[in-house]
Amino acid sequence: MSITKAKKTEIINAYKASDKDNGGSVESQVAILTERIRNLTEHMKNNHKDEHSKRGLLKMVNHRKKLLMYIKKRNASEYEELIKKLGLRK
Question: Which of 2, 10, 11, 49 has the greatest number of C-beta atoms within 10 Å?
Fold first, then answer.
């Protein structure tokens, strides 16, 4: 259900903003949240009555939404690029 340390490092390396970024940049946070949301969505397909996980999923989706709104306000082209790279919107 949770992502491994190796997978998290791989995601950070793919989306980091600079060489010194260790996962703290907004882009890295959004990418990590997206992976966690995808994993939890798969869990919810099999365990649809798991209300606690459902609440956590909704909190993560809302947090990602807020971070994406921040990126969009800061730099619209960067936002569009990140959305395409993550495959979030159609």
Answer: 11
- How many domains in the chain? 1
Cβ neighbours of residue 62 under 8 Å, at least 6 residues apart?
none
pTM: 0.91
Amino acid identity of residue 20, one-letter, is: K
Q: What is the C-alpha separation between 75 and 22, in angstroms, rounded?
A: 21
List the alpha helices (DSSP H) in the chain. 5-15, 26-46, 51-74, 76-86
Q: Are 34 and 11 in contact (CB under 8 A)?
A: no
Task: Decide if 14 contacts 31 (C-beta within 8 A).
Answer: yes
Give whole-number Cα distances, 71 to 4, 19, 25, 51, in Å.
Answer: 26, 19, 11, 30
User: What is the residue range of 79's domain?
Assistant: 5-86
CATH code at position 37: 1.10.287.10
